[in-house]
Every structure is written in C-alpha cells, then in structure tokens.
C-alpha cells in the first residue's frame, strides 16, 4: 500500500490517496492500527484517507491509532490541502474538503512552488449536549461547569468541532496530569462516543498554552480541532478576545485561531511532508 507520511505540528498521520489505492471498508480500522504501530508498523497518530467527494472538491476520513474513525482533524485537513495542491490534484488555492463533521473551506499559501501554510474555516462550534454527544439535558450546554466523573469533579467546557472536546483550564500547564485525567475523561460514561481532552493555561487575552489527550490516540504533539475548541472555550469563558487572532502554543508549535463574530472558527498553521513509502499489508 503506497502512503505518504505528513505532520501538522508533529501530529503525524499516514495518508492514503484513494484515487490511487483501493482499500476494503472492512479492513480500514485494522490497517489504521497496523500502520500506526511504531514497532510493527510505520508509526503515526493514525491514518487519513484522501478521496473523491460528491459534495466538495475532496473528502478526508481520519482513523485514530486505535482504529476508531473520527469526524474531523484540523492538522489532517491542512496536510490534505497541501497534498492535493502540491501534487497537482487541484490548481486552485481555495477549495473545499468534506469530513464526517461537515464541509470546510481551505486556502493554501504557496511559497517556492509548495504549500507552507494553510488557512481553514473550521465552521461553527457545536455546544449542545445532543451535538457532542454528552448525557444530560440534550439542549443544554456545558461552559466552565463542574462535572463529576468517577467521584471526582472536573471543571470543563465541552465543545464539538465535528469531533468532541472537553476543555479544562489549569493554572500551570506543566503540572497538568494529562496521562491520568485524559483517559479518565475520555472514557467517562457521560460521553457515549468518548471525547478528546484538552488542558489550557491562559497567558493573556490572545495567547494560551495547550496540551491534549486525544480520543483513540492518547497524547499527541498537537490537535487542530482541539485548539479550535480551546479558543472557543476561552472566549465563552471570558479569558480570550473574540474576533481576534489567538496564538495557541502546542507541544509541536503554534497555531493561530480566530473565533469570529460570525460564529465561525478560523485556523491557520503549517503542513509538512515527511516521506513517501510502501507499506506491506500482509
Ligand atoms: N489530531 C486531530 C484530532 C483528531 C481527533 C480524534 N482523536 C478524535 O477522535 O476526534 C486534529 O488535529 O484535530
């Protein structure tokens, strides 16, 4: 199986071009687990398929390293945009990508004939419990509320960017127990489809530090949809400025996120090729 490895701020995936490689639907979860394994496979945070769409210019599907399929991936979208432009699958600098979480509009920024940075309109955040999904009154929202999980209380804001995120603000990001709290919240019964877990330290009204425990992948260097959710939570919580570019410092580098007055979230950041290769499935 031909693949391309790419990363967005160190959040790396194995990209498979469905225009060239045909995979069986029933095998996708297992292939994602296999390619993600750093010892028995290639090593990545998961697998992303780039394919045709009937409603957009391209379609992206994302599978976590545990084989679960997610509905969106911000870092992945930037890499898909770079891939299709740099490999002349489109000559447009503005185009659309379909995800299970909705259609996004992307703009590639080209320098020396290749895409270095990508801007994406990630659409509107979803806050109601029925949109997360989260148990409880389905039309209610969770903004900086104390939520009890396994007898402990967690102060969180819950936001979907097509995929679910539990955002918690901390005094000192270096002290955040990401490895312990992450899986506890990810697997809480409160979240029927599990959830991504973000830890945020506010530096000032336009800058945050960010760590993430990803549903289905664990700790990653960066999470684009998580960064969007964190900025939405920060604005709703009164910590961050609305309609202003917010710098999000992730382990792998910085993203610039703007939660605009039109309720859309805009993300800008890099996308990077690592390698092309062949993976032996059998
Ligand atoms: N790393 C991705 C998010 C993956 C989300 C996945 N872990 C899920 O189950 O939602 C990003 O850059 O947005």
Automatic annotation (TrEMBL):
Belongs to the diaminopimelate epimerase family. This is Diaminopimelate epimerase. Its EC number is 5.1.1.7. The active site is at 73 (proton donor), 73, 223 (proton acceptor). Pathway: Amino-acid biosynthesis; L-lysine biosynthesis via DAP pathway; DL-2,6-diaminopimelate from LL-2,6-diaminopimelate: step 1/1. The keyword Cytoplasm applies. Keywords: Amino-acid biosynthesis, Cytoplasm, Isomerase, Lysine biosynthesis. It comes from Paenibacillus albiflavus. Catalyzes the stereoinversion of LL-2,6-diaminopimelate (L,L-DAP) to meso-diaminopimelate (meso-DAP), a precursor of L-lysine and an essential component of the bacterial peptidoglycan. The keyword Isomerase applies. GO terms for cellular component: cytosol. PANTHER family: DIAMINOPIMELATE EPIMERASE (PTHR31689:SF0), DIAMINOPIMELATE EPIMERASE, CHLOROPLASTIC (PTHR31689).
């Amino acid at each position: 199986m031909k693949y391309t490895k790419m990363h967005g701020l160190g959040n790396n995936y194995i990209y498979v071009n469905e225009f060239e490689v045909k995979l069986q639907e029933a095998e996708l979860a297992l292939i994602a687990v296999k390619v993600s394994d750093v010892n028995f496979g290639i090593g990545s945070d998961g697998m992303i398929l780039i394919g045709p769409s009937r409603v957009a210019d391209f379609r992206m599907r994302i599978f976590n390293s545990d084989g679960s399929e997610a509905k969106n991936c911000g870092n992945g979208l930037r890499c898909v945009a770079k891939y299709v432009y740099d490999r002349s699958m489109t000559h447009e600098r503005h185009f659309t990508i379909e995800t299970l979480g909705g259609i996004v509009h992307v703009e590639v920024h080209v320098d020396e004939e290749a895409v270095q940075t990508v801007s994406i309109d990630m659409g509107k955040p979803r806050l109601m419990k029925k949109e997360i999904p989260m148990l409880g009154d389905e039309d209610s929202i969770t903004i900086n509320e104390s939520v009890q999980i396994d007898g402990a209380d967690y102060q969180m804001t819950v936001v979907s960017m097509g995929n679910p995120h539990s955002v918690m603000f901390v005094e000192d990001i270096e002290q955040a127990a990401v490895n312990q709290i992450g899986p506890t919240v990810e697997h809480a019964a409160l979240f029927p489809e599990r959830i991504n877990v973000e830890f945020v330290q506010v530096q000032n009204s336009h800058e945050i530090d960010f760590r993430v425990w990803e549903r289905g992948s664990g700790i990653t260097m960066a999470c684009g949809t998580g960064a969007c959710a964190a900025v939405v939570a920060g604005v709703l919580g009164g910590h961050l400025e609305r309609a202003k570019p917010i710098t999000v410092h992730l382990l792998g580098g910085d993203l610039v996120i703007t939660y605009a007055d039109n309720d859309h979230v805009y993300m800008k950041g890099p996308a990077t090729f690592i390698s092309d290769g062949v993976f032996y499935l059998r």
